[in-house]
Amino acid sequence: MTKKNKIYLSPPHMSGNELALIEDAIKSNWIAPLGPHVDEFEKEVSAYLGVKDAAALSSGTAALHLSLKILGIKKGDYVFCSDLTFVASANAISYLSAIPIFIDSELKSWNMCPESLEEAFKKYSPKAVIVTDLYGQSADYYEIIKICEKNSVPIIEDAAESLGASYDNKKCGSFGEMAIVSFNGNKIITTSGGGMLLSNNQDYIIKARKLASQAKEDYLHYEHVELGYNYRMSNIIAAIGRAQLKVLDSYVKIRRKIFNNYKENLIDNKNINFIPELDLSYSTRWLTVMQINNNSVNSLINHLISKNIEARPVWKPMHLQPLYINNNFIKIQDKSISKQLFDNGLCLPSGSNLATEDQIKVIEEIKAFL
Ligand SMILES: *Cc1c(COP(=O)(O)O)cnc(C)c1O
């Protein structure tokens, strides 16, 4: 339940069509296991993204875990990973006792820096590269794909924050050997919790469905050869997802409008920069993120919180997390870009159900602080 009057960063936004589909699942008594809404949801998301197949799972994190498992990542293997990301991207590597190597961001997109990635390939031979599409925007894929192809290493696209975005008219969630999306409560559309693994390689998806169902073999009795997990999505959750998918594009448009509104109203201040958009990118603007370059970001966040407005710093880079502090961080400049973005960046309320008067209040409070 959300608190009254508080302005949230990115709360769930029901479209009104969810209940009819949930009712269908309940009336048919098909709430588990799996079911027709799961099958349809997988088909609809694959069609939307232009990808051959998808496995609906319990979370985006589960999808990341399975993607690495399917690629055969094991103990001691190196996996490259965006440094500026949510911890789930890196945790999937640790679940398999593999070793994450964090790649710095570039200022152009805030995403994985192609030059740093090239630098990393000079030092390590990774088994996979996890590229996050940060805050709704794709990484610079032409550059990144070129480098990974040259080194014959597969890309896993973490598009958890970027469902609905595209790069050169190709949808985020369709890049790489495999991609993942998330339907967590704070994402652009939500099923309350859930995720999907996507690939043009159908064998991967068949494998994912098996691993997500405790790797049960195809016998009448319960036969298990491999270690599996309980990661599949329920029919009720998928019913919510199908209703949400129908409004995805309209929600993206609203979030982009919210971003432009913040920008138009605040860009005159010379200390403020907004997250840029690559020429080839169409961002979902999942969250409006800006940088304030006068060491006042924490006081601004605290000011907004005191006014009942949720605001948060940018993701704390993985190489600075106590969980991951180590020397496995690759950058090209002396100063790390991801740290600079964390030190000065904040996320503003950006939900597709953000009321106009609430956004005006946020803008007024930022101006008052400045
Ligand atoms: C939310 C998120 C995830 C994890 O998704 P869940 O469905 O919450 O497990 C992974 N990566 C990034 C970048 C995210 O923002």
Write out key terms for the chains shown.
15 strands, 370 residues, alpha/beta, 15% strand
Biggest β-sheet, characterized?
A: 8 strands, mixed
- Order of secondary-structure elements: HHEHEHEHEHEEEEEHHEEEHEEHEH
In helices, the fraction of residues equals 25-40%
Largest sheet: spatial strand order: 1-9-8-5-4-2-3-14
Low-confidence stretches: none
Radius of gyration: 21 Å
Task: List the topology elements.
Layout: H1 18-27, H2 36-49, E1 53-57, H3 60-70, E2 78-82, H4 87-95, E3 99-103, H5 114-123, E4 128-132, H6 141-150, E5 155-158, E6 166-167, E7 170-171, E8 178-182, E9 195-199, H7 202-211, H8 235-266, E10 272-274, E11 281-282, E12 288-292, H9 297-306, E13 312-313, E14 329-330, H10 337-344, E15 345-348, H11 356-369
Parallel strand pairs: 2-3, 2-4, 3-14, 4-5, 5-8
Antiparallel strand pairs: 1-9, 6-7, 6-11, 8-9, 10-12, 12-15, 13-15
Helix pairs in contact: 1-8, 2-8, 3-4, 3-7, 8-11
The structure holds pyridoxal-5'-phosphate.
Provide structural commentary.
With 370 residues, the protein is α/β, with parallel strands linked by helices. It has helices at 18-27, 36-49, 60-70, 87-95, 114-123, 141-150, 202-211, 235-266, 297-306, 337-344, 356-369, and strands at residues 53-57, 78-82, 99-103, 128-132, 155-158, 166-167, 170-171, 178-182, 195-199, 272-274, 281-282, 288-292, 312-313, 329-330, 345-348. Strands 1-9-8-5-4-2-3-14 form an eight-stranded mixed β-sheet, with helices on both faces. A four-stranded antiparallel β-sheet has the order 10-12-15-13. Strand 4, helix 6 (141-150) and strand 5 (155-158) form a beta-alpha-beta unit. Helix 2 packs parallel to helix 8 (235-266) and helix 3 packs across helix 4. The radius of gyration is 21 Å and the shape is globular. The model has no long low-confidence stretch (mean pLDDT 96). Pyridoxal-5'-phosphate binds next to helix 3 and helix 4. The site of pyridoxal-5'-phosphate has 14 residues, from helix 3 and helix 4.
